[in-house]
């Protein structure tokens, strides 16, 4: 058992809010700092199924990667889907905490977990963010222990991430050899130029769209591997849960943690063509 | 008893949100549309003492004139004073509804109540806002039944509004005769030029500062009467309470209403010099 | 044989540039108005493989849906991939013409071809754009002759569009009945609110990302069917080719047309997970 | 007797224009640098009564704290009140000089005079502005020789400043003990957060309005003491007059100085309620 | 003799301020509305030599085409050249009035006088500005009674305007026949596209620079004739003087008018190369 | 013979693109980096007559000072005059390279050539641009070996530059002695304040317009000498041609260079008045 205040303090040591982008909305969304927290649920998205699970389990806090209110609001009335979640959480005695781009940049963070899931070694940030700590920054670049053809590498990505309805798609010659890899959990199209400049063989990210992908191919960029946004960030949840428990334990508190069992990838059907 | 949804619908018929300024934040701040509302408390400000009163009385809704979150937020954690109010309201089963610049413009609305408190007759908007309804708009202009010296008029203002620690201050020749008057509940400095163009003898509003007041005097504007912001909007509360009760009653619902007994003028001390 | 000038004039009657978005870049990219054009190639993207095909076939004009220079340039040196395409086209005597958001809005246009490929009937624009011609506008809304479960509808989409490596993915209950459908060729996430307000059962578009899709689902929007961007616009090419040939023929000119045989979807590999 | 040029040079040594805010309008408004100046009048506001006094007394320069043209102009025709003042000053051979936010920040300056009038000791800037001179900056923070209840402190403020019609108003518990105090001459609401962070017991300033004052109280800020804008800046006039005379005297010139006997607080009436 | 107020009213009937561009600064710059005005001097520029002439002649008002303070100011100290002019005018009892882009657009106005000086007939505005009065607008388009070669037309321009040191320069084939002509007094480069669309044979204006002139020539625009800015606006002065005298006379007042004898073209030397 | 790539590399060593203004458009406009270049033509403007000369001479590259597409474009169709030039250059196997504000700032560059043409000595930049290289920057300031009257100096300017139809015009007292001079090739009005602060006797530049020139004169600035824009930049062409040849020669390549024999000053006629 720990106070919500203590849990928040532990999370901010692990994922300093100062690492977040200026446009981001991280930190506590609801919850009373004096409340006792015995159970913490970890999930990618603050959606209905996740709140259902949290309240059923008796969680005192939900940590999600994605913000509930990235666009700020003038109120939280239960007439809107998001406001209704806030009402359910507050009356259920459960707080909501967001660690988003700060967790993306932190080391270890979202991108370290993704790189590890793919078996990358000797990783470092794609975009370093902290002169004092070279491990901190956006994305990761690393190498496979043994280079392999792109066709094999795509199968490795499939094995490393949780299954999703739509699977994994890729751009490039199946026989091209992949030795070095860049990863960026979530939507990574804004880093395509940086990735090309880094000279890696492949880039694993999510939410890639036609135009930037096509332009990257025309201009001689690396192979692209596009996975489900949810799947790319999911490996981090277990890591964060373990680190929070350890961080609190080192200060004499014990909380129970759980990674949500609910996939929140919106795509639930797929048909080959 | 009425559902919160029905109460909100009645309030939006009385004070249409479309009348609000584009920068304003009106409507439901928290509350469940399906909740039953038996008691509605009316107050100028959404502050701690008002929430105390609402919860102690068992209110199902507080209506305030001022927004809680004029500047939008990414969350409502109880680590902030405003977030704590939201937690108390939600766990106490009490909603919060804001009618701000829409109530200022509505007819009858905030400025009609202020004009009536001063005994003004034949009132019309200072800044008409609706070609289809000439009674709607910002501020009001009207006339006294019998013109009187400014010194007398200031006493009339004191008698017409609730007492406040700092009283009422005025600019102008005490002997100048006041026959026509403009009023604007709340901070009315942005209307000084409009008031001058309207050619009235005096302007009653709140939160006037040195520079616009001094410039208005130098350029031959009307006498100015500056009252407490809270006091200028308070007369509307009883009017709104009666209209809401009648509106709901006409549709077969009954709610109990009360005007908050807590003055929320921040100025609680005054010393003459 | 027709002059390039005559071909351009015919295209602008079919797809008036005034229908394009203000940020778009439609019209002639290169080519001499006095050149004779005997063959016109139609493709979705102005990429290397398409230019290869055009020059090999002896085309005098390539019409693409996507702009080559959406972001304007200060020059077209062959030191860049796009500048090299311009050099090859000019020295090869082949022009390049873009019909983008004007073809999206035109009737018949990109979205009519997509709606027809899915068997939609009684279509009208999702966002009408021309008071004088109710058929013109962005997206289309229509109905299936016989409503069918979402699982069947997804198969219909697969059958109606050209095959792609990554196939088709969808969000929603497979058993929900789909009777009315909205479509938007290309990236359609900016229309999600409009689609929800239209009250259709399903929305077919491309390039949908995690956040808008997840929010649409949480707020009770329609089923979503996400296809390859290229595939959603491909049905229009044959239609445009036929209409251009007819338009020129009606004025006494004959040109040979061909739809490019090169798929330009960047995604060439897929692996289920 | 000194040339206007010499007087201006002396004033700019005392109140360097570089200390002014970027939006401010300080310096010479009218006057001929070659004119002889024998008498300098000091006032808060450049208004009719002050110009009357200057011309009647034969002043060669008026120094005011407030700018005449904060909003810049395309001309100074006597068809406007301010243009008429310029015509009267120029034909009367009298210049006008403004020292505004530069005098607020200077040390000694407006805020030092205000702090001294209240008996504050060990003062330093609330917002330091010059790394090289720690005495320079906006506002002042200091301490009373002996802490006293807020009710007593308000009386101290009344005694320390010139009398005004509306007196002094305050927010806070009358019994709270005031030991440390922040001051800001003129309208000081933009510094409320800074003052709260400074942890003082009370803040003395002017032109405070309902919303920032109410929010400051709700969030646990210090006691607030709101005085007339004019009164808060008046103590500086005598100080500036003495310093200018000394500065010129040290260079061998003598000018006669006078603090205007005309209060320019617009509020001339007050009624308790 | 007339009051300055009456003279201003007459000028605003002739050159309505509402016709001025939004960025312009027209109207009274200094002067007392109650002053008696016996003499009015007309000039293109508010410069030292013009003020010398006005004061020597005993003018009560100077009307100039160009603003003194196009960029607005926070004061008019005599430490700046423009402020010194204001001091001299005010102490000399002489007002300054500006009629700039309103006189350019008015009919009759600056451009009618320029067109007449060149012998143009059947003139109408190049850019109409007033649906109710088709004679009002920017620039003029007209025709010569008899078309003539450009070489002759340039000589006609020289004869029609006052002499200047640098003379007149032109772009085009000397033998091209000029029948229709556009004119714009002052700097007319922003109208080059409009002039080209109007299909005239020649365009007479001032302050043309290399790039727009070169581009106009490359794109097949009309012949260009570039004159001194001052010379292009000078013909209007006599016209305005006569119209003001008549306007006042029709209301029973008499003022003496004079066109300044001082050329204010800055270019006083020229050397052929 | 050299590859276009090698010629471009040599030009970028002489005129580093990093020296250009942020709004400028320098570098290669068209051309294939692998093409062989035997002849390079140097001209001020990329206009029809220059392209005629380049193709007739068999140039592999044209270097111009002025950009072809300062405003960026979405295409280069031959339906526009500039697009037609691009088509002619590409089909003629001739590249186009622009060195604009980088050549203005470079040392030696455009302004060094202009200063040398006027016989200035001990030159340095008017606006230094590179702390590491004090010779680099905008404009140049220098001195005549022997001061001379302005009337003589104007004749010197005429002699030093290529003849133009409209000659040279000047502002100032013909007898004023000119010892120090600032120069800025092309349109130099934005540097008038800098020139005044530099305290030189005369300023030679181009494209000066009425208002800045008149204001400069009224405020006591230097004498102004206004030449044809083209003429002010022409002296640089021979210098650049020699330096490019030497730069390539030092790496073992030989190209033939030529300064265009076509004046591109748009003003071809002049008439004294």
From TrEMBL, chains A, B, C, D, E, F:
Sequence segments annotated as region (Disordered): 249-273
InterPro entries given in the database record: DUF34/NIF3, DUF34/NIF3_sf
Keywords: Metal-binding
Transmembrane segments: none
The keyword Metal-binding appears for this protein: yes
Binding positions for a divalent metal cation per the UniProt entry: 65-66, 104, 229, 233
Gene Ontology terms for molecular function: metal ion binding
Biased composition (Polar residues): 250-273
Family named by the database record: Belongs to the GTP cyclohydrolase I type 2/NIF3 family.
Name the record gives this protein: GTP cyclohydrolase 1 type 2 homolog
Organism of provenance: Jiangella asiatica
